[in-house]
Amino acid sequence: MESKELIKRYIYAVTKHLPESKRQDVGQELQSLIEETLAERSQGGQPTDADTKAVLMELGRPAELALKYDPHAKDALIGQPHFSVYLRVLKIVLLAVTLGMTIASLLEGFIGFEGNVFQFFGSVIGNIWQGLLGAFAWVTVIFAILYQKDVKLDFAADDLDDLPAVPEKRQEIELSDTIVSFIFTILFLVLFVVVPQVNIPLAWKGSGLISIFNPEVLIGLRWLFIAAAIAAVLNLSIRFLTRRHSLPVFLATTLENILHVVVLFTWFSTPNALNPAFVELMDDFAPFLFAPAVWAPLQWLPAALSRMPLLLLIIIGGVLLGSLIDLIETGVKAFRAQKA
Amino acid sequence: MNELNDIYANFVVELRRGVTNLVVLNQCQQPAYGYQLVKELADSGIPLEANTVYPLLRRLEDQGLLRSDWDTSTDKPRKYYQITETGRQLLAQITTYWRESVKNIESILEV
């Protein structure tokens, strides 16, 4: 290739990595540098193609040179400080997915797997592997975006005056609590979104296990479940990253609890939320608990609630109470933290 | 032995990294273009690669420490860099810091 063409290509290869506004100027300056270096090398004579190649080799690979012009350019998919957080999150997510997928696959197997025991365990391992690959990809993509977009994960301020106070013991969020909640969130997703046809099998009838909840209803509401899980993961992420009670933790907890109650109410007020086969089976055992009938003492409740099977009402009551306690506790801790 | 050489090479790179900014800023007290700086510094026993000096000039300009002008009056257009007022203030501060550091480090180096 002719020297002139080679230089032109080299400069293009460098400047194409730079912001549009800098390209022409940097290009002209590089051109000037290369010409001066070549002139000195050939000592006034006509530079040869070998001279040109040698000069360009000295300047280095185009992408590396471009990186020197733009030191803020990211040269890693996930760099520090995001990388440390990424590793911590990845470990927990992979652990939770392994657990969740193992339980889901085993449940699915008990419900009705056609094949021998080797095929069964093959399919369990296959499911877990697939789940792990998916989780790995998602966590990696999310952290790559966070790193590339400079989203700050290190909530501790850089400025000495802005350093947060060491949290009192009661303001701290235990890592183990966060991990346990995360595992429960994954379990919830697995049982009600990944394997809704299995969900929670509580009874045995002739040919196999019967699940307590109606799979069709679960499938119809899966986007609501996913939204609730996202709110939970958001809350857990803030807790995991800050490790202390604060206003953002309180707001995320509020959002999560509101979503949980909305999801639960929507789900349970759907006709046949309980699996009809299960209700039928329980008919002789405790009909008042599972049958969708108005229970006399609860007639004063709105229709959507009073027609709900008692079991579901109890669950809703329990979740409402739990949410209330959670909100008060998080709110008080956030208030104390603000005051401190 | 190779490992020691590698460590030494890394050490030198780390040491030179910060000093390079000081040296280039200092040399731009008079208008100078990139290639000229590379030559001058090499003659003063401070060899710096063109692929270090040129991007550095640009970064110092972006930080407002240098300003630049193209000279197109000759058949070889050149971009001249010169220190700004802010650059001068910073240079004075860094030079003071450098001298104190050298003095202090010298006083503890026994070899």
Structure overview:
The complex is a heterodimer of chains A (340) and B (111). Chain A has helices spanning 3-15, 20-42, 49-59, 62-69, 82-112, 117-148, 175-194, 215-220, 222-242, 247-268, 276-282, 287-290, 303-306, 310-339, and strands at residues 201-205, 208-211. Chain A has 340 residues and is mainly α. A two-stranded antiparallel sheet of chain A has the order 1-2. In chain A, a hairpin with a 2-residue loop joins β1 and β2 (208-211). In chain A, α1 (3-15) packs across α4, α5 runs antiparallel to α6 and α7 runs antiparallel to α9. The termini of chain A are far apart. A three-stranded antiparallel sheet of chain B has the order 1-3-2. Chain B is built from four helices and three strands; from the N terminus they run αβααββα. Chain B is of the alpha+beta class. In chain B, 66% of the residues lie in helices and 13% in strands. In chain B, α1 packs across α3 (50-62) and α2 (34-43) packs across α3.
What does the secondary structure layout of this molecule look like, with pairings?
The complex is a heterodimer of chains A (340) and B (111).
Chain A: H1 3-15, H2 20-42, H3 49-59, H4 62-69, H5 82-112, H6 117-148, H7 175-194, E1 201-205, E2 208-211, H8 215-220, H9 222-242, H10 247-268, H11 276-282, H12 287-290, H13 303-306, H14 310-339
Antiparallel strand pairs in A: 1-2
Chain B: H1 2-27, E1 32-33, H2 34-43, H3 50-62, E2 66-71, E3 78-83, H4 85-108
Antiparallel strand pairs in B: 1-3, 2-3
Helix pairs in contact in B: 1-3, 2-3
